[in-house]
Amino acid sequence: NSEYGGFNDRNYEGDYHQRKHAMPIKPHIKQIEDFIAEVRKECDENKKTSGILKGDLNVLGHKGKEKCNELTKLIMEDLHNLEKEFKRTVQSDRTEIDFFKQQLHGLNQDKIKIKQSSISLDTRLKQCETDVGMGFAG
Predict the structure, then answer these.
(1) Each residue's pLDDT tens digit, 3-52
(2) Would you state the torsion angle of the CA atoms of residues 54, 59, 62, 63, taken in this order, to the nearest 10 degrees?
């Protein structure tokens, strides 16, 4: 008898031996081992696939960065060319404005001369009218 009392009285050992032969443990263990082997195989395949995907990701990242740098360079070149063209246009406009200012100044000078001539001619005309008028009157 065990200290728990009645262990052998229940024929537990006998039931265990009967169950031992009745339970399909070996096929079950074989299934578990096969399942573990399959899981390991899938893990190895997943590791390989993961490595390939990491490599692809690195390649795509590198190509993306190259393309981004290439586009950035093209945009910067276009901006530089646009800036140069803008500066040329501004300089051309300034030159043209200066030319127009000179033309305007010359035209204003001509206008002043014409006004002065007009005043002089008016004065002379009045003088002539006075002289002629006096000559007819006298």
Answers:
(1) 444 444 444 455 555 555 556 788 889 999 999 999 999 999 999 999 99
(2) -140
CB 43 within 8 A of CB 37: no
Type of residue numbered 58: N
Under DSSP, is residue 36 helix (H, G, I), strand (E, B) or coil? helix
Q: Between vectors from CA 30 to CA 29 and to CA 35, what angle results, nearest 5°?
A: 95
Residue 8 in contact with residue 1, Cβ under 8 Å? yes
Rounded-to-integer distance, Cα 123 and Cα 2, Å? 155
- Structural contact between residues 1 and 9, judged by C-beta atoms closer than 8 angstroms: yes
Q: What is the pTM of this model?
A: 0.49
Q: Which residue has the tokens 């899981």?
A: 39
CA 99 to CA 15: how far, in whole Å? Answer: 120
Map tokens 């033309």 to a residue: 103
Length of the chain as a residue count: 138
The answer to whether 61 and 69 have CB atoms below 8 angstroms apart is: no
